[in-house]
Amino acid sequence: MAEPRTYRRLDATDMARVAVFAGIVAVLGLPGGFTVFGAVPITAQTLGVMLAGAILGPWLGALSMTVFLALVAAGLPLLAGGRGGIGVFFGPSAGYLIGWVVGALVIGLIVHAGNRKPVAWRTLVGVVTGGILVVYAVGIPVQSAVTRLPLTETALTSLVFIPGDVVKAVIATAVVTTLVRAYPRAFRRTWASKDSASLPAEPVHAS
């Protein structure tokens, strides 16, 4: 006889953590942004995307970005420069915003591959792959379509984001590796849920 399948549902702590990371992305937008050339601003908010995926894991990380974007769509001015409203999803930045959701998912999958404890090299690979490459892969084609500039030209102008994004990736890696040592409870639902006996038990339901 087959063993009953188990799953874990979201609880109040999960939702609180999702809200916290959506808030972190909003706070990182407070300093505003600036454009060197082109229509997409350079902001610190991608750092929040990297941290969400690396700390919350793939699914909660993606959910936190989805919640953030839902609040933006509802009209809250949470994007850098006080931008908000459904209109931003029809502008040059739209692809990058959607890329935050996919990027957080990919980051979590890499950083927590096999439910293993995050290590520096895998965290860096994860935040660079999901937080930079994936976000660009979604954002650049949409920006090209909206601005009606050739894809190659749009990609070249996007190189201006690289130095800042690399710095954010290094900062995110440092934060994650510090948390692994100092506060493993931050990684609830990932490796810490198995390795840390001090974490509260997860609800398990048979189906």
In short:
The protein is mostly helical.
Q: How would you describe the overall organization of this protein?
A:
The chain has 207 residues and is mainly α. The protein has one domain: Arp2/3 complex 21 kDa subunit ARPC3 (Orthogonal Bundle). The protein has helices spanning 12-28, 45-56, 58-73, 94-111, 120-147, 151-157, 162-182, 192-195; strands at residues 6-7, 205-206. Strands 1-2 form a two-stranded antiparallel sheet.
CATH architecture: Orthogonal Bundle
Number of β-strand runs? 2
The ordered string of helix (H) and strand (E) elements is EHHHHHHHHE
Shape: globular
Main sheet attributes: strand count, strand direction, barrel closure: 2 strands, antiparallel
Summary keywords:
mainly alpha; disordered N terminus; 207 residues; single chain; 8 helices; two-stranded antiparallel sheet; disordered C terminus; Arp2/3 complex 21 kDa subunit ARPC3
Set out the fold topology.
Blueprint: E1 6-7, H1 12-28, H2 45-56, H3 58-73, H4 94-111, H5 120-147, H6 151-157, H7 162-182, H8 192-195, E2 205-206
Antiparallel strand pairs: 1-2
Helix pairs in contact: 1-2, 1-3, 2-3, 2-4, 2-5, 2-7, 3-4, 4-5, 5-6, 5-7
